[in-house]
Structure formats: C-alpha cells, structure tokens
Amino acid sequence: MKINFKIREKIKNLSLLFICLLFFLFQINSPILNALPMDNDRSGLITEELRLKIPSKFKKIWLQAEKEVWEPWLSIQDGFLGRQIFWDKEKEEALILVNWENKNLWKSISMNEVNEIQEKFEEKVKTSLNININPFELIYEGELVKQG
After folding, report:
1. FRET pair for 127, CA 20 to 30 Å: which of 70, 88, 144, 147?
2. pLDDT tens-digit map of 73-87
3. How many structural domains compose the chain?
4. Any bridge partners for residue 88, and if so which?
5. Residues 82 and 123 reside in one and the same domain
6. Are 80 and 27 in contact (CB under 8 A)?
C-alpha cells in the first residue's frame, strides 16, 4: 500500500512538472508565433521611417528642399497617404514618417526613380548652400506596420 501511494505521488509530480514545462514552452514561443504573419502582410497600412542628421544651421534649406523636391514627387505616387516631418533641436536629427497604403505600392516604386529624385534634392541643397557634398546624413531607414 505504501509503495502504491509513492508511485501515485511520483506520477502526480511528474504530470504536474510536464504540464508546467509545456505551459512554459508555449509562453516562450507565443510572441514569435504572433509576429510571423506580420512579415508576410504586404496589404496593410505601412509607414516608412527615415532618420537624418540635420545640423541647425542647415535646417531651413533642408525643409525648403524637402518641400520643393520630395513633396511634389511623393504626391503623385500610387499609395502615398501623406508624411510627417519632425526635427529634434538637441540631437539635430530629423524624423520623416511617410505613410503608404500598403507595402506593395510603396516597394513598386523603382530605386532608379527614387535615386533620381534624391540626386535632384542633393543638387538643390548643394546649390543653395554653395557646397560640394550633401550635408544631410541618413542615420536610419526602416518601416513601421500598423498593429491591430
């Protein structure tokens, strides 16, 4: 009778341990499983994120070039929904958020066309400042996907 009780107790403890282990494993993998579909979703709203180094002394010229070169070009692109521009005085950094209807429309724009507009932008800046190099360094580019 004592042996039978001990065996039952061992089975009960092992079962509890097994259930806890399964629960723990599913908790670890849950965020990964939830994140997987996001990489393949190319049909929802997406925001292009750009961070640039913009020295204070060139801020006005930068904003003018953005308005004259990038805004007109963006406004005729399929899927373009608008953009927001922020500037951090302390860091001398700009954050540009460009909203697109979906990733497919955004990525369907050829890199040659983007590079051509970037060259026009840089030429405008260099001419306005009477310098030979673009003073605005791209720090980061990425994308944000709307959740929920």
Report:
1. 88
2. 999 999 999 999 999
3. 2
4. 93
5. yes
6. no
